[in-house]
Amino acid sequence: MRTVISGGTIVTAADTYRADVLIDGERIAAIGTDLARDGDRIVDATGKLVMPGGIDVHTHLDMPFGGTTSCDDFTTGHLAALHGGTTMHIDFAQQPKGGSLRDGLETWNEKANGRAVMDYGFHMIITDARPEVIEELDWLVEQGVPSFKLFLAYPGVFMVDDDTLFAVMERAAGNGGLVMMHCENGQVIDTLVQRAISEGNTSPGWHYRTRPSTLEGESTERAIALAKVAGSPLYIVHVTCSEAVEAIARAREDGQRVWGESCIQYFHLTQDDLDRPGFEGAKFVCSPPLRTEADQARLWEAIRRDELEVISTDHCPFRFEDQKTLGADDFRAIPNGMPVIEERMSLLSTDVHDGHLSWNRLVEVASTNPAKLFGCYPQKGAIAPGSDADIVVWDADVEYTWTADRIHSAVDYTNFEGTTVRGAATHVFSRGELLIEHGEATDAATPGRGKFVHRRTFEHGRPGEYLGPKTTTLQEIHA
Ligand code: URP
Ligand code: ZN
Ligand code: ZN
User: Fold this and answer.
1) Predicted confidence (pLDDT) at residue 464 exceeds the cutoff of 80
2) FRET pair for 172, CA 20 to 30 Å: which of 106, 131, 269, 426?
C-alpha cells in the first residue's frame, strides 16, 4: 500500500523543510511534491512536523531486577512507546550468572517473540567474562548485538571488577563492539548504605543521599581510563551530573572515542522528589539517582555543546502498589527504575518550546544519533528514500497534562503527574504501517508484528564523528 504524508514540515537532524513523504510498502519511496496518485492513502500533516520516529536505546522491559520484574512486557512497553512517538528501542538482554551470552540472547528473544509491536534490538549485559564468554562476544556481534553493558554498581547483582571490564573492552576494541558503562562506585555506595541503615535511615530519600555524584564522576573517570588503555570506544549510559559530564568532555577534548547519554528524567526531576511526603519518593528511585538543578543546567549545556549525544529513558517500570512498596520499610528494597518511555518525546518537545534545544537537535538526540551510534542508521533514524518508514507526525502545539490514567504502560503512576507538556504524536508509522492515528492505536498495532533489528558494527571516528557503517549505502543494506 502507498501512503502520502502531505503538507507537513519535515524535520531531520540537519534540515527543516516543507515536502510530502511517499511511503511504499515498508520504506520511504520519495520526498517531494505532487507525489500522490489515485488510490493512495493521504495523511494530512498540514501544520504538523514530520520526524523520524523516536529511538530509545536504553530500556528494560520484562526485566528481573530488585526481587521483582519490570512490569511492561514487549507489548505494553511498545504500545506506550508508540503512543509517545517512539518507534524503535534497544533493550538489555542479560547473560545469566555463570551462563553464556547465547542463553541470554535466547531468553530475551523469547520475551520479544510474538509480543513486539514495534522494531527492537538488544544490547547484552555482561555479568562475568570467563575466557569462553570473551570469545563469544564475537559471535554476539555477528548476531546483530554489537553493544555490551557493564556495571560498576549493584555489587552481587551486576557489578563487575576491573579485570572483567578491561577484558571486554579489549575484545570490543577488535570486534567492532561498543562498551556501555553504568558508572557508580558500587562498593563505596554499599558502605554508605550500610551506615545509613545502621543509623535508622530507611526512607526513599536515603537512596540519593548514599549515592553522591562525586562517585559517579570517579567511576566515569575510571571507565574512561580503562577504555583508553584498552583502545576501545566507550558509551557512558545515564549520565546525571556535572562531574560525569566534565570527565566525558575532557576525554573528548583529548580525542578519545567516548560518547555520553543522559535520560529525560534527569532534566526534569530532582533529588528533592525523593523526599516527597510519605512513601511517594519511592516512585523516583532510580540509579544513578536524580540530582540537583545545577546538574540539570550542566546537562543542558552538554547537549548544546555536543558533549552528550543521546537522550534516552532507562525505562524500567515498577508498579507503586505492589512493587515499589517492597521497600516500604527499607529503601534498599525499593526496585530501582522509572517508567518514561511514553513521556520522553513530549517532554523534549516542551523543552524545544522552552528554548533548551532546537527541533533538529531533538531529532538528533532522540533518534538520529542513537541510530548512528548503535549501527542501524540510515535504516532507522532518518527521513530519506530507502529508509524504513518509521515516521511520526507531530502536533507541536497541542497542550495537555500527564496523569496516570493517560499513559499506556502497565505501570500505575507517572513521574510527571500534573506536568503540562506541549507536543504529541498524532500519527505514527512503523515500517509503513499506520499504528497510531489521531493519537489512538489502530488495528494494525498487533503483538508479533515488531521485528528484531540486526545492527551493524561501524567505524568510530573522533568523538562525535560518525564514519558510517561498514556497509554505507541503503542500496547495499537492502541488497
Ligand atoms: O534504576 C535503574 N536505572 N534501573 C535499571 C537498571 C540500570 O541501572 O540501568
Ligand atoms: Zn544502569
Ligand atoms: Zn538501565
Assistant:
1) no
2) 106
**86 in ligand 1 pocket by Cβ < 6 Å?**
no
Is the peptide bond between 233 and the residue preceding it cis, with omega within 30 degrees of 0?
A: no
| Rounded percentage of the chain residues whose pLDDT exceeds 90 | 94
Helix (H) / strand (E) element for 189: namely helix 186-198
Residue 50 CA: distances (Å) to CA of 7, 43, 164, 466: 10, 11, 44, 24
- DSSP class of residue 41 equals E
Tell me the average pLDDT of the chain. 96
Name the CA dihedral angle for 49, 52, 53, 59, rounded to a multiple of 10 degrees.
-130
Q: How many residues does this entry show for the chain?
A: 479
List, in order of start, the domains of the chain with CATH numbers: 2-51+387-396+421-477 (2.30.40.10), 53-373 (3.20.20.140)
pLDDT band at 465 (very low <50, low <70, confident <90, very high): low
Q: Is 314 in the pocket of ligand 1 (CB under 6 A)?
A: yes
- pTM for the model stands at 0.97
- Which band of pLDDT confidence, cut at 50, 70 and 90, is reported for residue 393? very high
The tally of CA atoms less than 13 A away on the side-chain side of residue 310 is 28
Task: Out of 332, 336, 341, 415, give the residue to mutate to test ligand 1, the one with the largest number of ligand atoms within 8 Å of its CB.
Answer: 336
Ligand 2 mean position, distance from CA 153 (Å) = 8
pLDDT value at residue 460: 62
Q: What's the whole-number mean pLDDT along residues 34-54? A: 97
In the block, cell 540509579 appears at 287
Which atom of ligand 1 is the closest one to the Cα of 151? 8
Strand stretches in 233-275, DSSP E: 234-236, 258-263
Residue among 195, 235, 188 at smallest CA distance from 212: 188
Task: Looking at the CA of 58, name the nearest ligand.
Answer: 3
Instruction: Report helix angle 213-230 to 162-175, nearest 10.
Output: 50
